[in-house]
Amino acid sequence: MHALRSLLIALLFLSCTLSQAAPPQHPQQMVIFGGNGGGDFKLECANNFEGVVIRRGAWISGLGLICSGRRLAMTGGTRDQSEEWSCPGGGTVSSLKYGFTRDGNYPKYLDYLEVHCARGEVHCFHTGDGCWDRHPNPGSYNGRGLTHVSACSSFQHGYGIVGRSGDAIDALGMECFPAPPPRPPIDHIRPLPPRTPLTIMEPTG
């Protein structure tokens, strides 16, 4: 009877614990930066966001994600040639740096996209002028204010990209998701104590 009561109390405690579990977490959207054109889009990876696919001509016209080795459908224009790059070894995208063509001194279309991985690898997709900090052809303007960095914190990982697009990529921002807690080292896992053998006494008399 005592054992049955203990089991019922344990099950009741487990039920209360599960009912009070934290609600599901949602991606955090970073600032969307760029021009005013295009319609809203959202590209998300259900699994590992490990790379990017682009189309480029005079500017970067199309954009898609690579999730656990699989390409997602792209947004933007469809005419230009595509190319892709992924973080080595199944790594995760942690930040994006990007710059825009200019309309006066205001951003217009995506000119380059620099992909940063959580392990430190970097790749630059560009249309001829590299991944610049100051616009290479500023004209009578200073060429500043046309780049942006969208980055996840050290406690997050890349989840997707949001922005605006039409026949080109007009604006971008990252989505970040809380990273799972690291697993403890094997040598720090304490073994369970040995169980005490159960002795069954035969009834007497």
Describe, in plain words, how this protein is organized in 3D:
The chain has 205 residues and is mainly beta. The chain has one domain (25-170): Aligned Prism (Vitelline Membrane Outer Layer Protein I, subunit A), CATH 2.100.10.30. The chain has 1 helix and 14 strands. It has one helix at 2-19; strands at residues 28-29, 33-34, 39-44, 49-56, 60-67, 70-71, 75-76, 81-86, 93-103, 106-117, 122-126, 147-151, 156-165, 169-178. Strands 1, 2, 3, 13 and 14 form a 5-stranded antiparallel beta sheet that branches. Strands 4, 5, 6, 7 and 8 form a 5-stranded antiparallel beta sheet that branches. A hairpin with a 3-residue loop joins strand 4 and strand 5 (60-67). It is elongated. The model is unreliable at 12-23 (pLDDT under 50).
